[in-house]
Amino acid sequence: MHKNFCTFKPLPPLDAQEEHFLLRSIAWPMIPLLPDHLSLKQTSDPAHSTFTILPRRRGGQWHVGDQLEVIIQTYDFSGIPKNSGGDFFVARLHNSKLGAGVGGQVVDHLNGSYTAVFPLLWEGSAEVEVTLVHPSEAITVLHRLTTEQPDRISFQSLFRSGSNSETTTCNICLRPTQQRLCNYTDLGTGEPWFCYKPKNLGCDTRITHFKGEVKQKLKANEEKLFQSGVNMKVIVPASGPASVTVLPKLEDQQEVESRIVTLRLSGYYYQGVWRALGDTAVRQFNSISAISQCLRGKVVHLYGDSTIRQWFEHLTATLPDLKEFDLHNLKQVGPFMALDNVNNILVTHRCHGPPIRFASVPTSELHYIANELDSLTGGPNTVVVIGIWSHFSTFPVEVYIRRLHSIRKAVLRLLDREPGTVVVIRTANLKALTLYEALTNSDWYSMQRDKVLRAMFTRLNVHLVDAWEMVLAHHLPHSLHPQPPIIKDMIDVVLSYICPQM
User: Fold this and answer.
1) How many H helices and E strands in the chain?
2) Does residue 386 surpass a pLDDT of 60?
3) Kind of pairing, strands 88-95 and 124-134?
4) Is the pLDDT of residue 6 over 80?
5) 193 to 158, 161, 183: CA distances (angstroms)
6) CA-CA distance, 307 to 294, in Å (whole number)?
7) What band does 35 get if pLDDT is binned at 50, 70 and 90?
8) Beta-ladder partners of 336
9) What pairing do the DSSP bridges indicate for beta strands 124-134 and 194-196?
10) What residue ranges in 190-242 does DSSP mark as E strands?
């Protein structure tokens, strides 16, 4: 599928059909070919590019309930208009005085122009902010790296028997050599994992897993496509006014909606508080007693990467009676457990199975989420939270799809035997980008996997915490690990799912 050294077992027909649909749904509209001698002059330049707020389609003034459209026109570094698409933009509407913000949806017209669409949700000023995350030429590089170098982040394992030890390279996809392989494919989920066999030790002597070297090969001048402040995560200037004034909603008002895209947003910020646009209202759990009352008698299992571990740390820091039990594990790795004897609350966290880019994980603690879910009894007092995305960014998307297949099947089995179990899924989120972060964990990689996650868990009896929109809409800087105010908002969303009547 991706070079001969990276092959996968055939999927059952329905799973294969779904995978094909998912890959088509996230296919980037344009991935341009790059010349051998790349020059920035012909690439998208956010400083020359502009956005323009379009007038209200039926004329008149803007009102709450309308939808605002903004046209983005891209230019290259020579000031010449681009006539092709494929750039990656994000956009938000905000009012800092009101503590208000909402994400927009961006549509690529494939001709160098884009439209960003926003709902008008509050009265007063609403200011547009458009950010070029990556030019289309950078997307070409990111796509090629994952296609041709899915093993560019290596993983290693230490093997030990008595006084003898060896370290070998491991991965889902290992390039063929004369070395034999140790096959650690999980029997329960079928998830593949391999290590080169040590020369003098058996495969059963593997004791740790850890992240190895990062080796990625860029062509001449490609690094220039990933420059902070130049062409990566740079705000695009307005060609005219950057804001509109929104008046109250009128009785019998005929709202102006976009003809370009149907907005599907989870929520927005107002007065510094996240408000849902869906069916479940987000309640504020601002006191220790309110949180404790909601979680009383509950067992909360948190599974996933470090962005889920943040939630464990938030709860143990917020609730004085929720005492962490020292399991003598590494802080980054876990597993972790905290108990509130007074309110009968148990909270656990366990990281997901490989690939996982941690410093050192005992092999005994490499657990796949699907297997963990199958070990749960479940029920109305059980809460399951899953967040898995960041560590899959350097692999072909098929690897992520297959991992979600196994997790989704386990979620369905859990809900089948105990329908009252509360299951919450955390989405991906935007982050700060350096050259290294862009090439291994770009927002473009996260956005693609985020679309897959949402599609695969739609129409299931699970709840979504839309971390992507929450980070996009907030005034705080993007971060892989969102800052405490955003984490507090996320926890409020989770608690609102657990205790909708409080």
Assistant:
1) 10, 25
2) yes
3) antiparallel
4) no
5) 15, 21, 6
6) 22
7) confident
8) 349
9) unpaired
10) 194-196, 206-214, 234-236
Contacts of 287 (CB under 8 A, 6+ apart): none
Using CA atoms, how far residue 39 sits from 76, 141, 219, 411, in Å, is: 11, 14, 12, 49
Give the side-chain half-sphere CA count within 13 A for 76.
Answer: 14
Whole-angstrom distance, CA of residue 90 vs CA of residue 104:
7
Q: Rounded to a whole number, what is the distance in angstroms from the first to the last CA of the chain?
A: 50
Angle between helices 443-457 and 397-417 (to 10 degrees): 30
Least confident of 19-23, 280-284, 471-475, 490-494: 280-284
CB atoms within 10 A of CB 477: 12
- Average pLDDT of span 372-385: 98
3 state SS of 363: helix
Unique residue bearing structure tokens 């998830």: 191
CA–CA distance from 383 to each of 281, 310, 423 (Å)? 19, 17, 6
Which residue, 190, 244, 216, is CA-closest to 12?
A: 190
Helices (H), 394-477: 397-417, 435-441, 443-457, 467-473
- Helix (H/G/I), strand (E/B), else coil: 288: helix
What is the arithmetic mean of pLDDT over 305-329?
Answer: 95
Answer whether residue 410 shows pLDDT above 60. yes
The pLDDT > 90 percentage for the chain reads 86
Three-state DSSP state, 498:
helix
- What radius of gyration do the chain's Cα atoms show? 24
355: its two tokens: 């690939």
Residue 2 has pLDDT above 60, yes or no: no
> Which structure tokens are listed for 341?
């004897």
- Contact indicator for 238, 51 with CB cutoff of 8 Å: yes
Joined tokens for residue 488: 């507090």
Question: Which H or E element spans position 130?
Answer: strand 124-134
DSSP track, 59-92: -S-EETT-EEEEEEEEEETTSPBP-----EEEEE
Residue 447 · residue 431 · CB < 8 Å? no
- Measure the CA–CA gap between 392 and 403, rounded to whole angstroms: 10
- Is the pTM value of this prediction over 0.85? yes
